[in-house]
């Protein structure tokens, strides 16, 4: 690698508090080489550079775009087959074609129709939790709510949802290549069977709609359907679960912000600032330079990978004054919590809806909620993509 000072890796402190590492990087070396995802990548941390990079056509999602044209067709994919066919790993025109097939299912208007069901589900889950003992809010609420919602949207049977949650954690967190391949294969095998079952007996869920679109001539292969379903299941609950977990931690210690949950008209602005402040997806998935590219004054050579840190960008003081302060009254326009450009998160409206409902329902029912763990003792997921504790022990009712 050429250009800026290289760093062997972030220290262990990064996994506990990535925003501190990002702040130092922005101030001292905003484009630097680090060890992420098992290899070297250029980490980009300033807002202007990140936002520009998110729409830079020279930064491809598929690493094979860096190869000479005659070698691209025969080059092996860099990920297990289903994952290499996900939207997050594709460039136009393949990306354009596949995204068009699912965009209509995730419009803000379409997602708004889910509000009654999400509200009902949130109340059901909270009603099952004891108030007088410690419960893990991650396992009992933060993961379950979005997993059930996305599973119902896709048409995945309830009996399989817990296993999907387990497998997606493996696919999101750092793990050995063989474990990644095994989890990907397990999820793909199940979804292949589910696609066959839906084709034989269609329902009104999204997976059947994708199959129908393919059968009607949109040329969506079974592998592409499986990859789409895998991505939606993973992204459809992981981001929201992380957001709910971290937002609860933030609001427990902020009386003024928490009070806004009792005023429905103020909840959307609170959630939007929480999205900026927490950035559920800390770093965008890898991009690859298809030619020599200059980012922030650093030359990145063709073929090298780039990690655009949306979490770092959202706390850049050049874009947001006093960025480490949670301020629901600030102008958060332009934040990149959901990315930017053609790869902007499809499920942004769904994350907002679930976040608003989950936080309002939780603190309305349990205003005395407290976290039953020393923050320093929480164990965090070891993931480049998300930052959240693996468990969040809470007490919902007042202490005796």
Automatic annotation (TrEMBL):
Pfam families: p450. Coiled coil: none annotated. CDD domains: CYP107-like (cd11029). The keyword Iron applies. SUPFAM superfamilies: Cytochrome P450 (SSF48264). Keywords: Heme, Iron, Metal-binding, Monooxygenase, Oxidoreductase. Belongs to the cytochrome P450 family. This is Cytochrome P450. It comes from Saccharopolyspora ipomoeae. The lineage of its organism: Bacteria, Bacillati, Actinomycetota, Actinomycetes, Pseudonocardiales.
